[in-house]
Amino acid sequence: MEGVGAEGASAASPVAQWGHDVWRMYQYYLDKTTPHTVYRWIGTFVAIAIYCLRVYYVQGYYIIAYGLGIYILNLLIGFLSPLVDPEIDPSDGPLLPTKGSDEFKPFIRRLPEFKFWYSFTKAFVIAFVMTFFSMFDVPVFWPILLCYWVVLFFLTMRRQIAHMIKYKYIPFSVGKQKYGGKKSSASSSGSRGD
After folding, report:
1. Name one GO cellular component term (predicted).
2. Most exposed among 4, 24, 114, 193, judged by the fewest C-beta atoms under 10 Å?
3. How far apart are CA 121 and CA 78, in angstroms?
């Protein structure tokens, strides 16, 4: 009996090992894209354009587009929200200083940019693949879905912006002071007048 179990485990082992190797290679290349924010988003917008062209060309799959829009809205809320919500956990106090002597606490997102990008891109790729299966082409009157999504978007963003104003946080670094760090030693040593 032990020989049969060991034989079955050794037969599945190469397949499991291959799957593990493929996953590690995928993770390796995904990790290499981390510092290249602009190029990642350009690739994502290319995927979005391909998906939109597919939906426009086929003239269908609007329910997938609606579900995708709701999911993207959910991701956007996570991206714009702080990690520690002052409304839920008021014990930490305000996240940003209210007077000059307070300690500065930087804005930390509930959903970091890389995870936001990864989920965003993965959602569009999955939606694109779903457009090749006719079972997902549910006949709907798309203007109603579009109007409902727009109303949902504006109500959600209004609530999110009111939350930002109430707790005085800005989830973007536009207009915030940036610190340069140390100057290189080559430039400081070259200015010596010995």
Report:
1. Golgi membrane
2. 193
3. 16
Is residue 83 within 8 Å of 152, Cβ to Cβ? no
Among the listed residues 118, 127, 116, the one whose alpha carbon sits nearest the alpha carbon of residue 76: 116
Instruction: Please write the tens of the pLDDT for every residue from 30-66.
Output: 999 989 999 999 999 999 999 999 999 999 999 999 9
Please list, residue by residue across 148-176, b when 16 or more beta carbons sit within 10 angstroms of its beta carbon and e when fewer do.
Answer: ebeeeeeeeeeeeeebeeeeebeeeeeee
